[in-house]
Amino acid sequence: MSRVVLSIGSNLGDRLTRLQSVVDGLGGAVRAVSPVYETKPWGGVEQGAFLNAVLIAEDPALDCHGWLRRAHELEAAADRVRAQRWGPRTLDVDLVTCHDGEREMTSHDDVLTLPHPAAHLRAFVLIPWLAVDPYAILTIAGEPRRIAHLLDGFAPDERDGVCRTELALC
Predict the structure, then answer these.
(1) Looking at the domain 2-164, which fold is it?
(2) For residue 170, what pLDDT band results from cuts at 50, 70 and 90?
(3) How far apart, in Å, do the first and last CA atoms of the chain sit?
(4) Burial of 99 (C-beta count, 10 Å sphere; 0-12/13-18/19+)
(5) Given a cut of 80, is residue 12 above it in pLDDT?
(6) Could you tell me the pLDDT band of residue 87, with boundaries at 50, 70 and 90?
(7) Is the model's pLDDT at 83 over the cut of 80?
């Protein structure tokens, strides 16, 4: 049984509908859905605010590369265009971690790096993740670290830039 943590975001078009399309597209594989947060763009490109959430999903038929293919299919269905690094997007679906049973999967090939190499730097990933899994752990450079402890290292303005909304995914 593979279990994945997905970070999803959108800042173009009907942002909430784009996020909901991931929940709908994964259907019965979805095990947990975080609240929806509005966040400032990350990466230095001038653009509108994002809606972000984290999903936890399970599927015995998918390995980490299968989850990546599924993520790309969901992005393609939302007309995702990869024109500018960290630029605006209709939908972004990132694999943060993937587990096969209790074992954390790692990947360091040309198409997939797991765990996500920048997840620990992104409050817009960690805050929603913590909301659905208060005991979540992310491995950084081979060292398991609690998400709650990682967030303690963020500047207050960065944590405050991840604002919980009244919007919900179902």
Answers:
(1) Alpha-Beta Plaits (3.30.70)
(2) confident
(3) 23
(4) middle
(5) yes
(6) low
(7) no
> Phi first, then psi: what are they for 101, rounded to 5°?
65, -125
Q: Burial letters for 118-155: b for 16+ Cβ neighbours within 10 Å, e otherwise? A: ebbebbbbbbbbbbbbeebbbeeeeeeeebeebbeebe
Mean pLDDT of 2-18: 95
Show contacts of 166-170: CB within 8 Å, 24+ apart. 167/16, 167/36, 167/51, 168/35, 168/36, 169/16, 169/19, 169/20, 169/23, 169/33, 169/36, 169/53, 170/20, 170/23, 170/33
DSSP string, 64-87: HHHHHHHHHHHHHHTT----STT-
Q: SS3 of 115, please?
A: coil
Tell me the domain boundaries of the chain: 2-164
* Exposure b/e, 56-94, CB count within 10 A at least 16 = b: bbbbeebebbebbebbeebbeebebeeeeeeebbbbbbb
Structure letter (DSSP) for residue 157: H
